[in-house]
Amino acid sequence: MAIVKDNNLLLQHVRGTLGDQITIYERNGQIIVAVKRGKSTKKPTQKQLDVRWKMTVASAYAKVAIQDPVVKAYYKSLAGPGQNAYNMAVRDAFHSPQIQDIKIESTDVVVVAAKNEFRVASVSVRVQDERGKVIEEGRAVQERNGVNWSFKVTQMPKKGRIRVLVEDLPGNVSVKELLLE
Predict the structure, then answer these.
(1) Rg of the chain over CA atoms, in angstroms?
(2) Is the pLDDT confidence value at 90 over 80?
(3) Which of 22, 41, 72, 127 has its CB 3.0 to 4.6 Å from that of 66, i.e. a possible disulfide?
(4) What is the C-alpha separation between 101 and 11, in angstroms, rounded?
(5) Residues forming a β-bridge with 33
C-alpha cells in the first residue's frame, strides 16, 4: 500500500482498479494505491464465516450509528489519522465489553469493574437466592473512576449468585456470575 503525498496530477481524479494489478482509492483526503486483491479459491472455515457475519453486523450498526450526529461526533473524536467515525463505530461494534471483577463491599454493595475500548453504556445486576429466585435486580451506577459500577443490595442472601450484564453502546452484552457461599 502506498499513500500519495503530493498533489499528483496523474492520480488526482483516478479511483478504482486498473487492470488486474492495482487499486486506487481515497480515504480521508489521502489517495492510496494498493495491490489488487484476488478472490480466494479455498472454502471459508467456520471461524471465517463467523467473523464475516460479525463484520456484517458491525457494519450495519456503524451505518445506523453515524446517522445520529451526537454518536457520530463521539466516534469521530476517537478517530486517528486515516480513520473516520464509521471505522470507529465498526470497531466498537466488533468487540464486546469486558467484566474484569465482581466483588462485594461492606456486605451490601456489589462493585463491578467493567471496561470497553470505547464506552460501557450500562451495567445491570441481578441477585438470586440459592434456588435461583430473583431477589433484586437493577442498574448499577458508574463511580467516579469510570471503571467501577456500584449497586446497593437491600437484602443480600447468604447463598446464591450475583449475575452481572455489561452492555456497550452498540448493544454487545457480556455476562459474568459470582457465586455466594
Answers:
(1) 23
(2) yes
(3) 72
(4) 53
(5) 2, 24
